[in-house]
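Subject — a protein and its fold
Fields — amino acid sequence, structure tokens
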Amino acid sequence: MNISKRDKVVLGIGIAAVISAGLFTFVIKPINNNRMKIKTDIERKADFIDRYNGVLKNKDVIDTRIKELEKKGQQMRSYLLSGETPSLAAADLQNLLQSAGGELGLTLESVKVLDPRKVDIFYQIPVDVSMRTEMRKLKDFIYKIENSPKFLTVPRFRMRVIKNNIQFEPEVIEARIEASGYILRPETNLTGSGIEGKSS
């Protein structure tokens, strides 16, 4: 079979096109894709190294900040009642109230532990106390509660004056006070926090 010169040229061009397409599809394109992947990986690793170096440069600052947060966390814990559970904390609060009353010569007629309440990351531990005393001692007792080294509050307070017919004797006050302290809830992971102030 004789092939004309023109056909040979056309056939040669076709073969060259097929070969070029094969080279692009199976050789050049994969090589380019691989190069792009390598470039992306290098850029990603370089970015990670830059960020890691930035962390190393600020390590002292970070360590100092962590220590400050831990110190604040320890300081805040010192304001809380002792005991990991509400029942243990309630016992600690009862002891604090009995001690405050004893310093003033007060007798707490009844002490009742109420159910704990969830307040943000804390459990509020309320204890209800009843007493009969004079106004001055009652004021001093409440002052001792609200100025305790622990963070204590007086959410509820009720009183009534019992008429006294004895001349020059101070009036008798019948009072019922709910005093509350706080502990962290067990699920709380405290790294640092603060209490801005006391409220009553």
Summary: Residues 5-57 form the longest helix (53 residues).
